[in-house]
Design a protein that fits this description.
Rossmann fold, nine-stranded mixed β-sheet, 8 helices, 16% strand
Length: 329
């Protein structure tokens, strides 16, 4: 892994000059499922941390219209029922408006228990008593930083870049936490474990809808986390220009317990495309257990930056957000 981590060093600024992809060798298109909204549990419990709150009914995927939760409609369909038995106020919580207005840097130590700096995006109406899906984003090695004064590096790519540019639709009403890795190389599995524990304890998260995504070194670290922890927390993952071969070596076919969609540019000279193609081939060959949902999309003629077009949905057939939302634990 060490050699791969060092090889991922050219993430910053790569997005602007990416060639437009051709149709690519995309696996079967994502089928966006949605769960049926149920009623949240009633009761007088006060809203507590997500790890303590009772489960409410799940509303539909974030791209669908909302289902009813106790006390009103869950905004945008991504929220579940009430937190800790509290009623959902459809007009409460964070204001609507441009996404960047709800995007906040959280340096190390700014919240109790946050040992990593990160950017926090809260959807409209967050804080209204509902639970929301969580997307954790892991950046490339070029965005490593000290978790405080260098947090601005994190917004140069991926979901935080879209949020800062007000290109994140209100209907995709997820909590998005974009965490910065400190030190060298890629994030360790333990770092990701620690951050998930922090997020679930401090945000109104639907624990059945926890998603993971990363690019380059962030994808390598995410693959390795899944190799160690499979489906313990994560409901689905989108991993872009990473390398999952060591994760498959560790977990074997159990890695396929997590729905995974891998992306890679076929002309990538920074991270070998075999890191995605060989891993997905190994997972597809599994029978005990068979993979839940494993997909591969490669972009002919595209180099290391296969993330800009993927996160921005340049090809509508590769709608990673609807695909993620179709999975829950």
């Amino acid at each position: 892994m060490g050699a791969l981590s060092v090889a991922c060093g050219s993430d910053v600024g790569d997005g602007a000059d990416s060639p437009a992809p051709s149709a690519g060798s995309t696996s079967a298109g994502a089928s966006a499922g949605s769960s049926t909204a149920g009623n949240s549990s009633s009761g007088g419990a006060s809203a507590g941390s997500a790890s303590q709150a009772g489960n409410g009914g799940h509303a539909g995927s974030s791209e669908m219209s909302g289902g009813n939760a106790t006390g009103g409609n869950a905004t945008g369909g991504g929220a579940s029922g009430g937190v800790g038995g509290t009623a959902v106020d459809p007009n409460g919580g964070a204001p609507g408006g441009p996404a960047s207005g709800r995007h906040t840097p959280r340096p190390i130590g700014s919240k109790a228990g946050n040992t990593a700096g990160y950017w926090e995006y809260l959807p409209p109406h967050y804080g209204n008593g509902a639970r929301y899906p969580l997307l954790v984003f892991r950046h490339g090695i070029g965005e490593n930083g000290n978790g405080t004064s260098e947090l601005t590096k994190v917004v140069v790519n991926g979901p935080p870049k879209l949020i800062e540019a007000d290109q994140w639709p209100e209907s995709r009403n997820w909590i998005v936490l974009s965490v910065q890795h400190t030190g060298d190389g890629c994030a360790t599995s333990q770092e990701t474990v620690d951050f998930f524990e922090f997020a679930l304890a401090n945000y109104d998260v639907d624990p059945t809808r926890v998603y993971l995504t990363g690019l380059s070194c962030g994808a390598i670290g995410s693959w390795n986390y899944l190799g160690d922890h499979t489906d313990e927390t994560v409901a689905a993952a989108v991993l872009i220009c990473g390398d999952g071969r060591s994760a498959f070596t560790k977990a074997g076919c159990n890695l396929g317990k997590v729905p995974i969609w891998a992306f890679h540019g076929e002309a990538d000279t920074t991270v070998d495309p075999k890191g995605s193609t060989d891993t997905v081939a190994s997972l597809k060959a599994c029978t005990n257990p068979p993979p839940v949902d494993v997909k591969l999309t490669t972009y002919p003629g595209v180099g290391h930056d296969s993330w800009t077009m993927t996160y921005a949905l340049s090809n509508p057939q590769n709608d990673i957000y609807t695909w993620l939302a179709s999975h829950h634990k």
